[in-house]
Amino acid sequence: MTNANDKFSPAELKAADSLFQEPVSFMLSVADLSQLPPDSGLPEIAFCGRSNVGKSSLINALFHQKKLAKTSNTPGRTQQLNYFNLNNKLYLVDLPGYGYAEAPEKTVSRWQKLIFDYLRGRVNLSRIFLLIDSRHGLKKNDLEIMETLDKAAVTYQLILTKIDKISTSEYQIRQQNLLTEIKKHAAAYPEIIAVSSLKNRGLDQLRAEIASLI
User: What CATH number is given to the structural domain containing 94?
Assistant: First the structure.
């Protein structure tokens, strides 16, 4: 089990960066599975994580943009599945954050059901990128969704976010904890990627990982 931040060659990193500078657009928001776009044959990836883990900021940074995905300090802002189209080569889906306490219980339950039904039933879903806030590490609800993904046999890869907010020693502890945990999960990809959207760290590796799925 390894950290994937030194996995790709300079040529692969450059090609992936070029890919993520191609036209990308917001496609649609999905509040019900009946609204999902038909299977186009394009690979589909999804970003998932606790509320305020930094999904929207990471999506913006990946595409060298600032306002593609709406960011907010308010937990639970993303309430639907938000689809983005990368030049008809890839669909990226921003899933509603889980684990927040701000929204009413019925709303939380509805959002969570939408997430889990999507994860279990989307046949062209290539990989889930499960974001973990490096300041807090794995929480109970992270482990619960990992178990759900294991049962659904959906491949997922852990992304350690906001690494600029912690010390080197804290980072090493978080990294080792994640690598130890994923050994217990059948559907977990055996590498993690550590990123900082603010400091532009690890984004080239994540772009290359996503590009490898196309």
Answer: 3.40.50.300
